[in-house]
User: Fold this.
Amino acid sequence: MNLRNFENQINDTILMRGFDYYKSGNIISLEYENHEWVAEVEGSYDYTVTAKLTDSDDITNTYCNCPYDMGVYCKHQVAVFYALKKDNQRNKTEKKPDNTKFDEVINKLDKQTLIKIILDITNGNSRIKYERVEQLCLEGERSCTDRGFVHAFKEYRYNLYEKTMDIAKQTTLAIELLLIGKKNYYHKLKELCNEHEWQEILNNILNVLSEKDPGKIYLDIVLNENLKSRLMDYCNGNIYLIKTYYPKLLPEYSAEIGEMFVVQIFDSEKRASSRSGYRNVCDWIRHYKKVSGNVAADAIKKELLLRNARRPAFVDELNKL
Ligand SMILES: [Zn+2]
Assistant:
């Protein structure tokens, strides 16, 4: 598949949804790192899409971490394909897409001084007053309607504070950038703080994120910081995640997790009507066994065998346990 012809090979519904995502500015970052494109795509949750391109724009390898599994490609990937197709001047160097975006912003605003001053700064001209550039970035953030451009200005302003070593402004802005979903500011922010400051900032950020819709960035931070109680709460709100993360929550939460697994076993039993459904039930039982032990798992197995004696495929799967 190639960037020029992917539209012929993906079904129209997914294509339309992806195009809509792309047009609506749901791609909040697109960067070239370690020989592949990495994009953050925003929706009800944020997902990460990766794509590898050859020099002739063949898409050789692409992945999205969303749960969609009805087809080969999801709307997030399609949105990224459109963005890559649009960005035809791109050149495979680190951070190039951001620079391109930034040049576009400058031209769009059509302010001669802005162009001159910012280009001078980019070339490392230290005569320029940093305050003026800061002011112009803030102006750009206020006047741009495109969220991608606003984010680019904020990131540019962050670079400025790094150059001037203004720790206080770096900290404030890093928090802001992290809260709008720029997850690489998590590490930058952590480095700016001492342990005590970090604990306070971390807690505030997680509280703010969990008040709105805590997406992938919240989960990433919680995992990185190994915050078990927050992880447990998050899994309670997103039950499908418990299968992935319960080993991190043991032994502290084994009783609660055992109860969650029992609920999942009986829920999936109700929905199961084919061999793949029965396998799903058994999969939950296998995890349950790891958490609550053989005796508990065997009791459930017996109960299910009795209740489903007339479903030979189900009995067969249960007996594989
Ligand atoms: Zn996806």
